[in-house]
Amino acid sequence: MLYRPRRLRSSEALRSMVRETRVSADSLVYPMFVKDGENIKEEIGAMPGQYRYSIDRMGECLEEVINSGVKSVMLFGIPSRKDECGSGAWDENGIIQRALRYAKAEYPQLYYITDVCMCEYTSHGHCGVLSGDYVDNDRTVELLARTAVSHVKAGADMVAPSDMMDGRVGAIRSELDKNGFINTPVMAYSAKYASAFYGPFREAAGSAPSFGDRKSYQMDFHNIDEAVREAGLDIDEGADIIMVKPGMAYLDVLYKIKEEYGIPTALYSVSGEYSMIKAAASLGCVDEEKMICETAACMFRAGADILITYFAKELAGFIKRGLIG
Question: Please, is 176 exposed, middle or buried when counting C-beta atoms within 10 Å of its C-beta (0-12, 13-18, 19+)?
């Protein structure tokens, strides 16, 4: 035989040399929950190993992130007070704003991305202002832009709108520019599906809707061409990075969007994916380390330039050990 593909698999050194997909800690983002209150470190029941932190204890987590080699975190706020319009989202003394000021002062070496959405702040749990039982798109967009500006004023390095309202990327870009933040990038949740994979997150953030569901604004999981259109609209409105969410079950969407546009593309491996691996490993059904490494490599192979994952710290350790790379 003239060509034997197995030749290039004959040793670890050679397999590493010809590897097509490279995984780096520089590409990992760790999601973190910050909660109003004091001396809080609460384990999330549905997500073993993940915690809610009060500001006075979030440094414990940030030090772990730094020591792991991960350089970026995404912050989610859990306020003590909620109302119909989610006013805590843009309050200059809100949970995210105070967390940013603390983190930027004490741990400036990290890069801080903030989730921009209303669901954690509204009393009804939906991602915007209601008109009857329907989320009012345009009124919500105004408040999202206001929230994004408040985050950047408090120290956010990047904002990531996750609400799936039409036109919100353009509104946020415009308001950031008006306020002098022309160099602050926007990572758009461009293809965010209405997914059962979000269940553990809703426990973590206390953000489950009090009625109905989010199918009128998050995407139908049957659709892929719509995801490409959504990403294109966000790019046209000024998104610097686009995102697909969830991860494992949506790699076809990621691949198609990356092939279509070729701009930096993130993938969010969500809470349900984390909890599935944790649960299976606890029952002895799978090897946890190998599952984490394999699924992450699959996500980068499908086109992710950035991976937002609750396994970020573990993955960075596995990279150092040569288990993935």
Answer: buried
- Per-residue pLDDT reduced to its tens digit, 161-181: 999 999 999 999 999 999 999
Pairing of strands 158-161, 134-135: unpaired
Q: Is this model's pTM higher than 0.90 or not?
A: yes
Tokens, residue 279: 């649960």
Residues catalogued as catalytic = 192, 245
Q: Are 77 and 95 in contact (CB under 8 A)?
A: yes
Residue 265: both structure tokens together: 């593309």
Number of neighbours of residue 88 by Cβ within 10 angstroms: 24
Q: Rounded to an integer, what distance in angstroms lies between the CA atom of residue 203 and that of residue 198?
A: 9
- Quick one: 268 exposed, middle or buried, by C-beta within 10 A (0-12, 13-18, 19+)? buried
What confidence score (pLDDT) does residue 108 get? 97
CB 47 within 8 A of CB 310: yes
Whole-angstrom distance between the N-terminal and C-terminal Cα of the chain?
31
Alpha helices by DSSP H, listed for 239-306, are: 251-261, 271-282, 288-301
Distance CA 267, CA 264 (A): 10
Q: Which helix (H) or strand (E) holds 177?
A: helix 168-178
Which tokens hold the place of 113?
Answer: 């991305």
Evaluate whether 230 touches 258 at the Cβ level (below 8 Å): no
Does pLDDT of 281 surpass 80? Answer: yes
CA distance linking residue 134 with residue 216, whole number of Å: 8
